[in-house]
Write a structure and sequence with these properties.
binds NADP nicotinamide-adenine-dinucleotide phosphate
Length: about 300
Amino acid sequence: MNFKEEHKRCLALIGADGMLAGMVRRLAPDGYDLIPLDLPDFDLTVREKVLSTLGAVRPEVIVNCAAYTNVDGCESNEETATAVNGLGPGYLAEAAKAIGATLVHLSTDYVFDGTKSTPYTEEDAPNPRSAYGRSKLLGEQTIQQSSLEKFFIVRTSWLYGPGGKHFVETIVRLVKEREELKIIADQVGTPTYTADLARAIFSLLELDASPVAPHNLSGIYHFSDEGQCSWYEFSLEIATHLARKGEIAAVKRILPIATEEYPLPAKRPAYSVFSKEKYKRVSGGSVPDWRESLAKYFDQST
Ligand SMILES: NC(=O)c1ccc[n+]([C@@H]2O[C@H](COP(=O)([O-])OP(=O)(O)OC[C@H]3O[C@@H](n4cnc5c(N)ncnc54)[C@H](OP(=O)(O)O)[C@@H]3O)[C@@H](O)[C@H]2O)c1
């Protein structure tokens, strides 16, 4: 076996105990050696710790899945949101620059105000409506304004997968507990299975490592599953799966409501569907339909 066959790309996985990171660990191709980093040992908000840890590990790739993801919690804790989601990614960019690593950072559809009615492209101007969205936008900007050469900022939406707190699991619990649910029908976006996103991250990283790839692939990429739905339509599909599996006798009464009827601390975009054209063009990859991916999730496959 020669050196090339033995060489594995060292990947520092930040926020390694979170939902997306769990899937990144599960689907990491053979050629990667993962170093998991998370609280309490590794705090993204402590610049010296970030620089010294990554300086010692010297990964070729840093994938940042860490974030303060409680969207409503961010409204009353904007300082923490800013530190974790806004400034922390800048420290990672600084560390990546010092060791020549590629940084993959995750961002969100909540950087947009949702006033469009056609899919958001990477060129559309962000205008967040929430503290979470503002903090995530700051995270993008700290990376873009660092002098790091190789980075991918991957915006995603409505994420669900094993081991996380998310809409699918909330609906699974509520349809079993209640006879009637009222779900918001005037916010439209696209659910994204963590398995599809983890694969997309690795396909961008494969391109990054390829000697024949075009020179500068760095920048923002939109990735969600294909298609669109409201939270209401998403909940109907979830209930249908539960009925199919025999976990509920029949689909319960699920009623569509307007955003105003379910007030929450953080404002959400009314429309946040992504165009995935850039991702598809650059990676040559396809994007699965959200309904097919939800079926896989319920079948416990990836
Ligand atoms: N979930 C969604 O619907 C969604 C939608 C769009 C974009 N995204 C983005 O996708 C990425 C992954 O989301 P996710 O849902 O997988 O997140 P998650 O499950 O909430 O995991 C985040 C991880 O980061 C850790 N963390 C928090 N503060 C940290 C700090 N200061 N230092 C180091 N680690 C810290 C968390 O630890 P603790 O649990 O101990 O706090 C947790 O293990 C995030 O960038 C998120 O903004 C998510």
